[in-house]
Amino acid sequence: MRFDVISLFPAMFDALTAQGITSRALQRGLWSLRCWNPRDFARDAYRTIDDRPYGGGPGMVMMGDPLAAALGAIEADRGDRTRGPVLHLSPRGRPLTHARVTELAALPAVTLLASRYEAVDQRFIDLHVDEEIAVGDFVVSGGELPAMMLMDAVVRLLPGALNDARSAQEDSFATGLLDCPHYTRPELFEGRPVPEVLLSGHHARIARWRREQALAVTRARRPELLASLRLAGGLDAVDERFLAALEADAEIRDLR
């Protein structure tokens, strides 16, 4: 998979290429990255890429011309290969979800606009951006960190990126639920033991316990995920009985 990133700070992406899972996946040839600085495509001697907003207001706006020229260079560099979607990392975008990450991981190429300043000229967005994506309901100084979060999420789903493919299959959101708690040695930590079922060696009981823990955590922290999973038919009768028991226990506690 190929990533092309339009960014004023391409060195920031060394964090992905030089460290951890994404670095190993890069060395295995599972993905590639090329960064494009819009200043290299500015038309004046000052390499200007932003200007004051029409109508007044705070901050500066990234100009469309350098961005469009960078995008044209990307398409020329790829030749006849598909350019893939152009994604703008923006707090105005739709929230990034596991489902969307899975879709992106199946593509041969993606172009990411990691913008800066107050905004990007809306005409560039209207003409050239396929989708705006947000990584949360907050604002950061630029699109580089959100772009890296998206890339990391995508790369770890590429076949061969993880040493054990089951890791991605059992992550939070992969099944529509948050992940269950996990434990390791020692068996007793600060007076707290490992749950007995995890020491039993009974794989079916362990699998059921993990499922119930995931249901309980999701119910407590992200009930909207549980509602969506129920609507999609992702809960069986055993799940529903467990959740009903949780509801009954909660009602009893509230009465005390």
From TrEMBL:
One of its GO terms (molecular function) is tRNA (guanine(37)-N1)-methyltransferase activity. Pfam families: tRNA_m1G_MT (PF01746). Residues 1-226 form the tRNA methyltransferase TRMD/TRM10-type domain. Keywords: Cytoplasm, Methyltransferase, S-adenosyl-L-methionine, Transferase, tRNA processing. S-adenosyl-L-methionine binds at V135, G136, D137, F138, V139, V140. One of its GO terms (cellular component) is cytosol. It comes from the Bacteria. NCBIfam families: PRK00026.1 (NF000648), trmD (TIGR00088). Homodimer. This is tRNA (guanine-N(1)-)-methyltransferase. It comes from Quisquiliibacterium transsilvanicum. The lineage of its organism: Bacteria, Pseudomonadati, Pseudomonadota, Betaproteobacteria, Burkholderiales. The gene is trmD.
